Amino acid sequence: MLRAFFSSATGMRAQELLIDNTANNLANVNTNGFKRSQLDFADLVYASYRPPGATVATGLNSPIGLQIGSGVRTVGNTKVFTPGMIQDTGNPTDVAIEGDGFFGIQMPNGELRYSRDGAFHLDANGVLRTGDGFAVDGNITIPDGVSMSNVTVASDGSVSYTQGETSTTVGTIGIYRFRNPAGLSSEGGNLYAATAASGAALPATVGTNGFLGLRQAFLERSNVEVVTELVSLITAQRAYEINARAIRAGDEMLSNTSQIVR
After folding, report:
1. What would the 3-class secondary structure string for the chain be?
2. Gap between the Cα atoms of 253 and 262, Å rounded
3. What is the mean pLDDT of the chain?
């Protein structure tokens, strides 16, 4: 009977984590470039009272076995990098990635972080930065006196401005891809860090490996689907209740057993 207690407890803990994950997805339903996470579960070890194929009589093997599991564990959560809706903002410093790829973001210590959030801004010196003040990879600086209406971001990330009939390129926004983007570490602030699981960052080229290009004056929204998350939330709540009920049922059976002994 104690096995049922521990198995149900692992189930309740797993559903708690699922609700936490779902709540985070819902909280970021309007976060630019946010990618939803899904939890992966696996069953725990089994107590094997009779393995399948065990000999039950001379020359006879059982076609089935008797194995009782110990519950469930959470393997991890996987970022789902399906594209979000691309929305026209009319802001020339907003940039959206079509297809696969990540913006390179320069951190103060010189390291690179990666993001799908293209809500960029110019600082007092004309440097292109994120909303948190980090510089966009590529050293993009717009000279003083240049109107943003004259600034163009090409599909390959090159940034240029026009004055009269002269066009000047000021740099190229760094776009990177990963062999396993699900292996990236979520750092908060719409930033990811490369890990041994994601592999090293590779420069992205338009038209190859799923990178379709950049679109100026557009932003990619979150890929969270509210209806899907609400269904997941309801399912987790019901599963939590059922596991709690299994513990109560086991407790009642132990109570009845102790009363019989008396």
Report:
1. CHHHHHHHHHHHHHHHHHHHHHHHHHHCCCCCCCCCEEEEEEECCEEEEECCCCEEECCEECCCCEEEECCEEEEEEEECCCCCCEEECCCCCEEEEEECCEEEEECCCCCEEEECCCECEECCCCEEECCCCCEECCCCECCCCCCHHHEEECCCCEEEEEECCEEEEEEECCEEECCCHHHCEEEECCEEECCCCCCCCEECCCCECCEEEEEECEEECCCCCHHHHHHHHHHHHHHHHHHHHHHHHHHHHHHHHHHHHC
2. 14
3. 92
Confidence at residue 249, expressed as pLDDT on a 0 to 100 scale? 85
Phi, psi (rounded to 5 degrees) for 171:
155, 180
pTM, two decimals, is: 0.86
CB count within 10 Å of CB 94 equals 22
Looking at the chain, the whole-number percentage of residues with pLDDT higher than 90 is: 74
| Residues 110, 140: Cα–Cα separation, whole Å | 16
Contact 111, 105 (CB under 8 A): no
Name residue 86's beta-bridge partners: 220
Q: Characterise 234 by phi-psi region: left (phi > 0), alpha (psi -120 to 50), beta (else).
A: alpha
Residue from 146, 147, 136 nearest 174 by CA: 136
Q: Quick check: 1 pLDDT over 60? A: no
For residue 247, CA distances in Å to 8, 239, 252 come to 6, 13, 9
pLDDT in tens, 169-204: 999 999 999 999 999 999 999 999 999 999 999 999
**pLDDT at res. 188:** 93
